[in-house]
Every structure is written in structure tokens, then in C-alpha cells.
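Dear colleague,

Following up on Tuesday's group meeting, I ran the structure prediction for the three-component complex that the binding team flagged. I've pasted the input sequences exactly as they went in, so you can double-check that nothing got truncated or mislabelled along the way. The C-alpha cells for the whole assembly follow below. Feel free to forward this to whoever is handling the docking comparison.

Inputs:
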Amino acid sequence: MNKKFLIPLGLFAALVVFLALGLTRDPREIPSPLVGKPAPEFRLPTLTSDKPFSPSDMKGKVWLFNVWATWCVACREEHPLLVEFSKQSRIPVVGLSYKEVQAQDQPNGPLNDADKLQLARERSLRFLQRQGDPYMLSVLDLNGSVGIDYGVYGVPETYLIDRQGVIRYKRVGPLTPQILQDTLLPLIQTLEAS
Amino acid sequence: MIPELGQFSLVLATVLSVVLGVLPLWGTLNRNTVWQSLARPTALLQFGLVLLSFVCLSLAFLGNDFSVKYVAEHSNRLLPKAYQFAAVWGGHEGSLLLWVLMLTGWTAAVAMFSQSLPLAMVARVLGVLGLVSVGFMAFILFTSNPFDRLFPIPADGRDLNPLLQDPGLVIHPPMLYMGYVGMSVAFAFAIAALISGRLDAAWARWSRPWTVIAWAFLTFGIGLGSWWAYYELGWGGWWFWDPVENASLMPWLVGTALIHSLMVTEKRGSFKAWTVLLAIAAFSLSLLGTFLVRSGVLTSVHAFATDPARGVFILCFLAVVVGASLTLFAWRAPAVTLGGSMGLISRESFLLLNSVLLVVATGAVLLGTLYPLVIDALNLGKLSVGPPYFNLVFAPLMVPLLFVLVPGTVAHWREARLNDMVFELRWVGLGALLLAIVLPFMFGKWSAGTALGVFLGMWVALGSLQHVVERIRKPGRIGGSFWGMHLAHFGLAVVVLGITGVKSYEVERDVRMSLGDTVTIAPYTFRLADMVDVNGPNYKATQAHVEVLKNDRLIEVLYPEKRRYFSSAMPMTEAAIDSGLLRDLYVSLGDPIAGDIPSWSMRVYYKPFVPWLWTGVLLMVFGGVLAALDRRYRRRSVSPLQTAGEALSSAS
Amino acid sequence: MKWMLLCWMLMAPWVRAADALPMAEDPQVEARLVVIAEELRCLVCQNESLASSNAELAEDLRREVRKLIRDNKSDTEIKTYLVERYGDFVLYRPQVKPLTWPLWFGPFFMLLLAIWGLWRYLRLRKNALAMQHASPTDSFDTAAHKD
């Protein structure tokens, strides 16, 4: 058999292998380029205070940064888990309230900043009162700019940040007990030890 | 009752396809003509059963039978009847049934229109088609059954995706599938030829009309998809290099190469192995397309709702069908004879160049489409490959293709002289060059890209015209092949000119308008005359009345809408288009803007030469049909040479 | 009735409809935005460009890009800004780097390979046929005319 006639079969076999591998991947999942980089700086007011909070305030600690909103349905899935985690772990959880005020809250044109802040605070605090509050504090990112700096594209998202302020892990989508057990807790242990 | 009948019918059809796939082929191996003659009736019966199944599913939709899960997911009581029928292929399961309907349809057609073929050949071709059918029917019955029931029965269905509630949906997928599935016929002929060891000019002559018709359908399907995206999506784009669009383009490119390669095999007995490989490739790309759309490996607006199990099934099917074909190819092709001699410059070499350019273009599109998947599979990250890449890589390959098209049609078979061809084409070349230099100035600014596009389009158009005029002057009947070829080439030229024109001179204005405001794109002025509320059968809409004036004279009123379907939260934009011979005026209504005076965001487009895109595609389709219906493919009488040849080879 | 008509006629010049204003506040910034955004991917959509997507994140990102354009950042700087946050996925035109060399240079090499293969084939074929001395399977269609 003339070898060159086998080339099409060979190329096709390679293609099938890649397609098979492709079936095991999720094309919508985007890995973050921020893992291994310092957490981007910001200064934002919190739910309870106008005094701004910045990630550098957490230097020296290992902490979780969780992006959430009251309108986010998937966030409700992970919320009980977060509350449980915050009770059991020494690791503080800081929340990022992402774009709490939406278009449907402003049917007659955009609200002014003060009104937006008030609405966001009221609604979020009410939510946390009812569902439990896992957060040390929650900062308010009303227009999503800080979200963009952190590469947020779909709430909920969670970052694990180490003592030097470097992002070590990012999870897009709700946290699950599996992820907590298999990935997050071991990583936290390693980071705490350092 | 009816869904059960549909499912039962499909099961029977599957059994028949197993019979069709096994017995006639076996019959050719052991010379059993009784088994061979089972092929035709089995093929026809198989089609009848699938048709019955399809009718049952359609009745379930038209009768609002929401106990059938697929109906509940894709239809609704308020959905207009025409769309209730089209919804049959609005989702994964039903569209697969449509695919199988077409596959068995083509199989039945080959059974009916193959009277002049030797029985053994027919048995093999139908057998291969039967085997392919088994795979698809099994896929439906085991993983994607449209007849699955739903309990408890909902009072109303979820509704058809509003984007699909459009005449385009009714016709685009069926036409596209006719093309995809039609490539299976060329494939079956190729496999049959490889199995029998009989790869010759006769085989090429039999394959060619089937391939050309399939190509015509595919051209039509792709064109429709493009047109539909253009008027439905609301921002005037018509090609996005989306993976699913690419999945339809690749079999088309290879199909085009195949048609031209078949020409050489039929005329000179050359390129047999290459032609067979192209036939396998064309259908393989159709199957690959099916995999890409339904497996979830790529993100696309076109992708059906997916399920990993389905992806695995299709991949296995793809691996088996294509793997077996290419193995058969590797085994049998080396024994194939060379055919007639050909010079370095000859029609054959031009057609081979055509094949090469089209296949490289296909390779480039395949590379771009699958690269993100390969990188991700190797765990090297996630990247995107989009229009900037494809445009940069595809256009330069089309330039030489369009250029050699014209000399290719005038070159002599076997041996051609370059000087003679240059002399023959001197006016065509000069004419195209002149128009390329002058025309861009008439429409706006001149640029090298525009000039190149105009040159290539005019080169092909004038080349065809000159050839036709010369031929008409000579005596003798002109066959459908000749008219078909030139019509198709001319259509291609029109498409090229259309693309050049719209990309060079289109204008977009994104404005805010209140009642009475105007926006001008010379010489047209658009005036927002009124804004009303409209009630549709299953939606509510805001409708703008936009007056279009040319040089201050009213020529048209356009009614763009923003619709809110009851079943969906997303508002839908219905653009309004005024089509002319040379241009489209396109208006798209945006969102209302908060303020004291009511105003809305509007997008107004001036799109010159866009109608030429659709016209050119239609010309190509008609060209293909004319070529396929050429009388020489339909003659029932068989020449003595042919009968002798067949007698010899059936003894082998 | 007549005096009403007169009033309207007198008011007419002041009630002239206006030439519509562009949606964008700054057409120049907007023009640059469209060019850049067409090469960027909307992250939450199923394969749409940042320019044409109506998703909320897309609007936020367009707002950021406008800000960067007003700050006189170059196209490269803007793309780098987004890649730093979202990775290569956000670019529709992949960067040319070792990871993408096969992608960018592949088609060109395929073409070279194909042309070389074509040349070799035509040459080899000529020799093989010369050795055969005959073309055994000429077409059944004896009228080998140029159509």
C-alpha cells in the first residue's frame, strides 16, 4: 500500500482525538488571567459606611472576595454555603455588591448617585438580614467598573486572595460543597501556613 | 396515538435501513441478484415510513399536542399555523428527523432515477446510503427522540424562539439540509466505486448531476441563511464566520472543487483518486458540521441545546463512517489508473489548481474554526478566532481563484498555449481593468481594495459574456451544461461585485429621533413621521413610520418595529428594508430615550449593492440546476461502448 | 377657523423638525469605538462582537473603552487593558505569538505545500505517462471538445 494514501486517514484520526478532548471541555468557561497577579486596587463605600474600603486593608490576611447581587438567582444557590463557611472558618469573606441597581429600578431615567447608593444599601441589607450575612463587609460597585477590573463576566464569582494581596484562585459560578472541599479548603490551608 | 404511530414508523424505517445497508451490498459480494434487487423497493419503502413519521410529528404540532415533550418545548397555542409547522424543525430532535427525511428522500430519488445504471452499482450506492441512514435513525431513537412524552401535560407550550418566527426559518434549514444530505449521494457513489474497484469516467458521469443538484441546494441554503441574518438580526450584517456558518461553507467549498474535479474525471478519466477523496471529504464535512452544531464543543448562536451523550454518539458515528471510508480509500486508491495525459498548461491543470485553492481555503476555515478547541483541549488556554482572522486569510485565497477561473474556461483540454489564451482574453482583461479604475470613482472614493474587487468581478463577468456570445455565433445545440456553467460563474461575479460594493460604500447613522426629525444619507432623507402601537398574534410592538425621500420626493414608507413576544423577555427588532436594484435602505428601531420629548434611538443604513449578493446567489443556484438537467445525463439509451464496458467489469 | 389656521402658519417656522442628533456624544470617539469593538468579543453572548451586542456587560465594556479612547490610549493599549482582565478570549483577532503561529502561518504553508504538490504531481505524471506510452482510460465521450 502506497503510504501517502494513508495521510487523509492519519489527519482525520488526529482530528477525532481533538474533537473527543473537546467534548470534555466547556467552551463558555473562561480562565482568569488575574490568577497569580495582585488583586486590583479600588476604594469603594460599603453597605454600612461611607468610609471607603480597599483590598490593601486586608494585607497580611488570607481572604475570600465574593461577587454577588440580590437580583442574581445563582447567588442564592451558593448563599447558604457561604453563610455556613463564614461561621466555620476564620477566613473573612468580603462581598462585592455588583451593579445592585438595575435598569428596571430606573424606569423614569437614571437615578442620581445618592439615590442609587441608598437603594442598593437598603435592598442588600434587607437581603442579608433575611438570608444570613456571611460577609465581614460588602463594598458597593454600582456601575461595574471594579467588576471589569476583576474580569467579572457572570455573577456569582469568588476570588481567593493571599496574605500578599495576590489572587490565587477564581471561581466563576456558584460555589459548591465539592469545590469547597476539593479545591478551596486545601488551598486556604496552604496559604495560611505560609 | 399519532406520536406513537410516528415513533413506530421510525422504528420500522430503521429496521428497513439495516436491511438496505446489509443485503444488497452482500448481494454484490456473492453475486446474488435477488438481494441486489431488494435495494430499490427497500429504499422507497424506507422513505415512505420516514415520511409518515414526519407527518405524525407535524400533526402533533398543528394539533397543539403538548403531551409530546418536543412540541411543548417549541410551540405555543398562539403561534401562527405556518410557524407551528416550521417549528417541527425548530429544535434538535425535529431537525434530525428532517435530516433523515431528506436522506431517505435522496436515497429514494437515486432508486427511482437510476434506471440506466447497472444493478450492482445501484445496490452498492443504495446500500451505502442505507448504512448512513442506520446511524442517524439510531441516533434519533436512542438519544434524540422527538416523540418522547411529557407528564404532566402542560396547558400551553413554551413557544418557538421569536428569532425563528420568520419566513426564513421555514425555508432555510430544509434547503441547507437538502444540500448537506445531498452530498451523501456523491459520497455513496464514491464508496460504491471504491468497493467495486470500478473507478472510471462512467462513474463520474453518474455522480455529477447528483452532486451538482446537491451543490445548488447548499448554495441556496447558505444564501438564505445569510439573507435571513441580514434582515432578521437588525444590524445589517450578513456573514460572521460563526462556527456554524463555517460548518456550512466548508462542504460548499469542497463541493465546488468536487464538481470541477468530476468534470475532468468524466472527460479525461483523470484525477480519479482525488475526486473520490473530495467526495468523501464533502460529506465528511457535512457530518462534521452536524457534530459541531449539536455537541456543544463550540459556542454559537446557532448551536442547538446540547447534551454530552449526543456529542459522543455523533463523534463515534463520524469516526466510523469517515474512518472506514478513508481506510477503504487508502486500500483501493493506489490501484487506480492515471487517465489521459495533460500538459502543465491545460484545462485539466487549471481545474486542478481550482481544486487546490478551494481545498486550501477549506483548510484555512477549518483551522480557524477548530483552533480554539485544539488549544483548549491541550490545556493551553482559551482564545477566540473571529472575523478579523477569517477575512484576512480567506480573501487572499479567493483572489487567485477568481483570476484563474476565466482562463480555465477557455483553456483547451490536454494542451493549451498561454499566448493563445492571453490573446483570446485581451478584451476581457482590458475591459475589467478599465472598469476597475473608473467605476469606484463614480460611487465614492477610490481604493485599491475596491478596484481589485471590481476587477475580479468584471473579469469573471466579461469572461463569461464573451464566451457565451462567441458560442452563440457558432452552429450546433448548446447544452444545459454550458449555460449552467456560465450562469453560475456570472452569478459568482455578481456576488463578488456585491461584496466589494457594500463593503466599500456602506454608510451607517446611529441617531436619536423624535417625531418629525430627519437624517440624511445623500440623496436619501429619512423622516420619523409617526410612532404607533401594534398588536400581533403573539406579540405587542412599537412601530415607527419612517418616510423615505429621495431628492425631497417621497418614495417609500418603512415600518421598523420593536416587538415584545408574550413568551420571551427579550425584545425583538424587526428591521424595515427598502430594496432596490442597486441598494438597500435599512432602518432599525432602537430603544426609547428618556427625556422631555419622546425620542428613540434609530439606526439607518445605506447599503449599496447588497441586493446583488442575493441575486448572484440565485444565479448560481439556477446555473447549477441547468447544468444538472443537461440532457446527456438524462438519456435512457446506453451507448454500445458503455454496455461492453459494463459487461467486462461486471465479470471482474 | 381661519384665525386658527393663521396662527399655525405663523408658528410654522418655529415648529420645524430638526436634523436628528447622533446617539453618540462624540462621533469621533464613537467611530474609533466601533472599529475597536468589532474586533472584541462579547463575553456573555454566544459569539457576538462587542460592537453589536446588547448585553449589559457589553454596554459596560463599551463605556470603559470610550473612556480609554478619550484618554488618548492607542488601540493596542486598549486591547491590552481588556486582555489583562479577561484573557485572550476577548480578542477576535488572536495575537501573533508562538501559541498562534500555526494558526496565522498555517494557511500560507498549506498553500505552498499544495502548490508544490501540484507541481510535483504534474511533473511525475508526465513521466509516468511517458513510460506507459498510452492513455488506457480515455473518456467514453469521444467528442473531446472544448465546451
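Residues 24-95 of chain C form a domain with the Helicase, Ruva Protein; domain 3 fold (CATH 1.10.8.640).

Cheers,
M.
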